[in-house]
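FIELD: query
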Amino acid sequence: MNFKRPRGTADVLPEDQPYWSHVYDVARKVANQFGYRKIDTPTFEDTKLFARGVGNETDIVQKEMYSFEDHGGDSITLRPEGTASVCRAYIENGLHNLPQPVRMYYAAAMYRYERPQAGRVRQFHQFGVEAIGDPSPEVDAEIIELGWKYIADLGIKNVTLRINSLGDLEGRTDYINDLEKYFSGLAGQLPKVDRDRLNRAPLRVLDSKAKETQAIADAAPKSVDYITGAAKDHWNELLLLLDKLNDVYRGFAYKIDHRLVRGLDYYNRTVFEFEPADAGSQGTLIAGGRYDPLIGVIGGQETPAIGFAGGLERLILELKKQELPISSWKGPDIVVVALGDAGAAGATLASGLRAADVSTVLAPKRSMKAQMRFANQQNASNVVILGDREVKTGVASVKSLAEGGGQTEVLLDVNSIAEHVRSAGTP
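FIELD: result
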């Protein structure tokens, strides 16, 4: 029987690992620059955490969660997103007792039962940041700046920030009523999926991917026209802060998009997305916003918070699309080529070099030509050649595989060979 990976999952083969190392390394570097510390949460959580936190009417909860009953009879769900889990950890571990805001980041696998396509899979990976405990627009600007710097440091160019304000939940009634009236008057022109959304959650219609709906949504009431009081002040102050980022980061730009609402129930006030200039329907690289009600909804004391998540698969697709240079895999410092009866001596030497922190691979016992081909395939920096003569005389031949590299006779002992390759420039 031939087994295949489950639909919507992927094997990350060695040749793609440099891309994954790049997005993880830059994520860690940028998060640390902004004072964010790593948090890991369980792969699965109580199903009710996501039903309450993400929202019962969202597509995620309605259609996409991997939920099951465990042997104890509890309903468990593989996490479809990271924010609810981080907020649960914030409550459960008493992080509200720390100086606020608590700045955290994660990089982890998520799971949603979606139709697989480019940049959208069933097991996917996100880099996310959360700042919990500060309501100020300065923190909103910080989170947005972090997302921008992450994308810029990855090397991705021609990215636009789309931003909107949803106001506060208690002040959203008039807006949603007017939005529902507007779409209801044009319901006959909407596809069935959006008519269903209109009945459940009118805001979701704004985020539709259907072209006919998008044209109608362009003329829909705008949320920023309905926000007042503290929410309005927060919005205006944030825009001023973003304007100042233009002076700090070359190429930074944003546009207000009244159709931007995000697909999760916990958002209020600021919502935003970063997308490349030629983005398709699945082109968003990073998305997030403020979610002040969430911690209160899942059982904690209502606490202001904001964050974002970026899909690593999509970021890697964009890196490849823009043909950005990524550091290639660095092979071993040494490949030991053993000839004749020198196999045992070669294996012993390889072990000694590894113990001395010199990365070393023993070539498979084949012809000299085949072993040298193997060393080149491994992207090795050097080969150490051992034959009966070298073992007998106690002198090994060390050949550099760099362009124009030479061959040198070196004493056949670990320290001498290690010192030689280090002095020649091999780390």
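FIELD: remark
The chain has a mean pLDDT of 90.
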